[in-house]
Structure formats: C-alpha cells, structure tokens
Amino acid sequence: MSTRLATAALVGLLLASGVHAEDGHALWLRYPPVSDVALRDEYRAAISAVACPGENATLGVAREELARGLRGLLDEEVPLVNSISRDGVVVVGTPQSSPVVAALDLETDLRKVGDEGFLIRSMSVAGKRATVIAANHDVGVLYGVFHFLRLLQTHRRLEGLSLVEAPRVQLRVLDHWDNLDRTVERGYAGFSLWDWHKLPDYLDPRYTDYARANASIGLNGTVLTNVNANATVLRAEYLQKAAALADVFRPWGIRVYLTARFSAPMEIGGLETADPLAPAVARWWKDKADEIYRHIPDFGGFLVKANSEGQPGPQDYGRSHAEGANVLADAVAPHGGVVMWRAFVYSSEEPEDRAKQAYSEFVPLDGSFRPNVLIQVKNGPIDFQPREPFHPLFGAMPETPLMMEFQITQEYLGFATHLAFLAPLYEEVLRSDTYARGEGSLVADVIDGSLHGYQRTGMAGVANTGTDRNWCGSVMACANWFAFGRLAWDPMLESPAIADEWIRMTFSNDPGFVAPVKTMMLASREAVVDYMTPLGLHHLMARGHHYGPGPWVSGGPRADWTSVYYHRADEEGIGFDRTTTGSDAVSQYFPPVRDQYESLETVPEELLLWFHHVPWDHRMASGRTLWNELLYRYQRGVDRVRGMQETWRSVEGLIDSERYEQVKAFLAIQEKEARWWRDACVLYFQTFSRLPIPDGYERPERTLEEYEAITHPYAPGI
Ligand code: GCW
Prior knowledge:
- By secondary structure, this protein is of the alpha/beta class.
- It has 23 helices and 15 strands.
- The protein folds into three domains: about 15-165, 2-Layer Sandwich (Chitobiase, domain 2), CATH 3.30.379; about 170-505, TIM Barrel; about 530-575 and about 615-710, Alpha-Beta Complex (Alpha-d-glucuronidase, C-terminal Domain), CATH 3.90.1330.10.
- The protein has helices at about 5-15, 35-45, 55-75, 100-105, 105-115, 140-155, 205-215, 235-250, 265, 280-295, 320-330, 355-360, 425-430, 445, 480-490, 495-505, 510-530, 565, 595-600, 610, 625-650, 655-690, 705-710; strands at about 50, 90-95, 120-125, 130-135, 160-165, 170-175, 220-225, 255-260, 300-305, 340, 375-380, 400-405, 460, 575, 615.
- Strands 6-7-8-9-10-11-12-13 form an eight-stranded parallel beta barrel. The chain has a five-stranded mixed sheet with strand order 1-2-4-3-5, with helices on both faces.
- Mean pLDDT is about 95; it is low at about 5-20.
- The site of 4-O-methyl-beta-D-glucopyranuronic acid has 11 residues, from loops.
C-alpha cells in the first residue's frame, strides 16, 4: 500500500471510530455525530426541519448555528422550512420574527423570560408535533438555540420539554487583562486575541469564534483592555479598532467595554489635571463618551482600577472613589452605559491589614454612587488565592450594586498546566452565607440583586483566553471559562452539573469517561489548595510572576507584597491573627459569621490560618498536631495529583490521542510542581517549627537553599 493510501485508510478508520485528532480549538462546540445510534435515530425522528424566519444578524447566526449543530450531531442535513406541514419541526423565533411563534399561546411564559431568556417546549403546532424555541428578543433566541444544542450534545431526551430560562445576572462579562502590545497580564495562553495593529481593516476569524463561544454560555460583555490601563485605547484611531470588534461581536449579543485610565484627560487630553471635580475634566469625559458612542452605539461602559497598585485615581486629588466613579458615570449615563469601579484597592502607606482595606474604604461610600455605577469586588479580600473566605463587602453595601469578580486565568493556581477546575471555588463563594439580612443571605443573592433589590447586577471573570490553538493554554483550563459563563447565567448551578455538561460537550458522552473525569475535576481545586496553601494559608507564591512557591519572600517595596506578611510563621506557630485581638478583620463580617471565624473552636479548618495564629502543637480535629496536619495536607495534595494521573491513564483510548496526551503531560508537570510546592513550603516552615518530618512521609528532594535559589526570569504573564 502506498503511503498515501495507508494514510487515507488510517484517517478513515479513525473517523469511523469517532476518535480522531483534535487540538481543542472547537471547545465545547464540536457537534460530533451522536455516538449512540439509537438515540441519534430518535433525534432524527424528533427533528425533521427547522422553521426560523427573520432577516437580521442575530437570527442569522442563530439559524446558522442550529443548522451547523444539527448537521453535525444528527449527521444529516436538516432542511429549513416556512410552514409546519410535518411532524418534527423546530420552530424558532420571537413573536415579531416568526408568525408561527406569534400565533402560539406563549405570553405567560414569555413574560417570565425577560429580555434575554427563552423557552423551549415540546408542543403541538398546527396539529403537528413540534419543538418551540421562543424568546422576546433575538438574543434570547440565540441563547435558546445554544441551550437546545446542549441538550443534544449531552444526550438528553427531547420529549416533553418544558424549559423556561432567564439569566439571573444582567452583565455577564469577561475582563481581559490584555495590553495594546498584545501581551496579556497573567495570561498563559499566548498573546492577546486582539490584533490591534491590523484592526480595523483585518478581522481575524477568531473574533467570531470567540464571540460565538461566549454567546454559547450566555456571556454578553467583554472588557477588551487591561485594568492596568493605557489611555491610548481611548484615542480616535483605537476607538475605530474597538468599534470593528464590537461590530463582529454584536450579532452574538456581546457588548464591548473599555478600561478607562483615570489620568487620560491629562495623558491624551492635554489637561493639567484629572481632578474629577474640575469642570474641564468632567467635560472631557463627557466629550470622550460622546465620541465613543459615535463609534460604538451600544458601548457597554468603563471598567476602572483606580488608586490601586500604582494606578491613578481620584484620591490623587483628595477625592473619594465615589467622586471619581460618578464623573465617568455621568459621562456615559445619557447613552445608557455603566461604570464598573473596582474595589480592589489597598494603600501602600496604610498599616491596616490589607484584607480589611477595601471594606474600610468603600462601606462609608455606600449610597453615594450614581445609579449606573457597579462596584466590582473580587471574590475574596486579598487576591484570587486558591482559597479565601468570601469578601466581607458582600452584604455590606445595600445601597450600591456590587458585582462579582472571579479570576478564570490561574494566576495563583499553577498557570495553565495545573488542572484546577474552578467551579467548586466559584460555587463555594456564591453559596457562602453573609447573614447580611439574617440566615440565607447568600453571596449569590447579593450578586443577583435579590437581597438588596439592586437595579443592576453583574459578574466578571478575568479571562484565560489567548492565541493558543486551544484558547486557554490547556484543554482542561477551558472548563473554567465555560463554568464561569454558566454560573454568571445562573449563580446557583452546581459544579457537578457544570462539569458533566462540559465533559460531554468537550470530550465524550461515554459513561466510562464522564464519571471518572468528573470526579477528578471536582476534586482538583482542593488538591491545589492542599499542595499550595492548606489550612487557610495564602499568598505564599514567588514574587512578581507568581509561579511556584516563595514562602520566604520578604522585604522589597511593600510588606503586603511579601509572603511573610501573610503567614507570620515564628517559633510559636503560624497564621495571621485576624481576630478581635489581632487585626480584627473578623469584625467586617456579620454575626454569626464573625463569631464563627473569631473562635478557634468554630473557625472552619480550611480557613484556620487565615484568621488565627496557631501554635505548632495545636490539636486538630484529626487528632494530629498542627505541624503534622500541615505536612499531611501537603502530602495529600501531591497524592491527589497522582490519583488524577491514574484516573487519566484509565481513560486512555476513550478520546482522541492529541488532547489525551496533552492532559497527560500537563498532569505530569502538575505532579512535579506539587512536590516542589510541598517540599519548599515544608522545609521553610520547618525552620520555625523545628519539628521533624515524621516517618512514612516523603523526603524533600532538595534543600531549602536550593529551592530558594530557583528563579524564573521568563515566566509568562507579566
Ligand atoms: O492579582 C493581582 C495581579 C495583578 C493585577 C491585580 C488586579 C491587573 O497580580 O497583575 O493587575 O491583581 O487585579 O488589579
């Protein structure tokens, strides 16, 4: 056989087996033929045609998506029809776009789905069996189409469908920490997707793919630029570029936002000041907003990081965050825009515990922001650590909409090569009870606006996307993008359900694959906590790039950028005393949360060293001393990664080898780095505890000095 024939035969064989090479680019939108042939036949019988009239961009992409998905999943062309003359038509549209939908009695349900929701219902239409996907607006139709395809992708039954879906959060956005030179701060997936140099004339097809992927999980906004902002993006020529992206994203229901550098009026406007109370400054922002809206009529608004980590802000002029936010809010208000103002602030001079500063700064300002300002709060009070308690601001600002900021990119969780499925982290935060209005005042209720009656709601995720073929630097990291989108749509979704969907859509519906991989993913974040920062430890990473362990980091420009500031290890014990006799951060929480964290008896062990300085010989629930428990957890983290490797080996052959091999290789990196974290931290903390590493425990491979000498001058993400 010639090489060509052999190759063709091999490709044919692989295609027939359904296992062919994939690089992850298709994400969870692969639409392979339904592997269960009986089910595929059932789907074919249930879906004979699509009726989706209407001539606008959003309906166009919805119709195309449905055709594309069905063609793939059913492995046959599904015709478009205008009338319902047979069983099995999928009727798609709004009462405006589709006369068939208009004629159905759907008002009651459509009232429930609002501007972006949809309903999917099996019903009789003109005496024929049909499936109806209906919404009030085109974008709801698009979301309904993606939902319907997800049902098929995850092999759900189609009879008796009666779904009414509406997002519980209004602004569901990705924050890109992308710079204009295409580097991505804390990005581990290559360069920025936005090719500013070639915009607006060249539109990379990936812009469409990106918008499509976001729409498929219900995201409706994207902040194109880094919060460490560059005023250049507000110049006319860059606004044209941003407008070109907005044009690509619009059919997919995605609005563009930009970061606003507070000193822009000086840097690109030639003003002497950026004082928000100076009339010329307010005028400049108004004119700038008008100009932006001429380019991008549906511009979403500004995201601002001010007076934080060297960014300029209103405090440079003795003004408050509210005075700063309001001047921008007034500028975009006439156009319907919002300002997302970040609460991630901490001062370099301030001796107060960094965990307390955002609360101290913002709570007194409650009620003094314009109605179109949302305060964007990171999930925890420090900075996206593998585990933090929920941020005490949640529940503490009833008069000001607070939106959630999660990190999708794994700055502190091993970058793209560590498998850390973050849905459990997001879920843990969203389901935390703030007790702001008594029991049952969940963070999710703050975020979706129900607790305080917020008029505006939002959730932002710091994106992990880049130019890598697989988008996120690793196939598995895409699960976090997916999970964020699903939770922004419904903050009460559960991690196992999200994992289940993602695995089935991304890899396979084979139960022999889905079950073990789901178990592995759901336990993965806890493994990272164990081998990096167990028992409430935090901020132990290397300086600057944050890659790998650095519990010894001390000195430098500011105490709260060191590890020793946070772990406070000494001969007596370890941990940050945030009780009432310590920094008193506990008092920023409502009782009984405050009392729970205050007492050594009741603080959850997961947060022990976040809130307490604890003696090395303290008895833990397990009966072990704190020292031995710490060692136990570090070891458990490594063991858990080894368990993940074993799980992954057990599913070899059930998916394509390209993605299989990547995950396998990355798990090996993770295992190696888990040992590195464990050994470096244990050896370092041992210099304080002066306690032995008990028998039966793996010995560190290198000396503490050797670990301390490791440098990574070219780690990605800075
Ligand atoms: O987590 C820290 C990061 C910075 C980031 C900052 C922030 C964009 O190390 O890179 O800056 O948070 O959230 O503003």
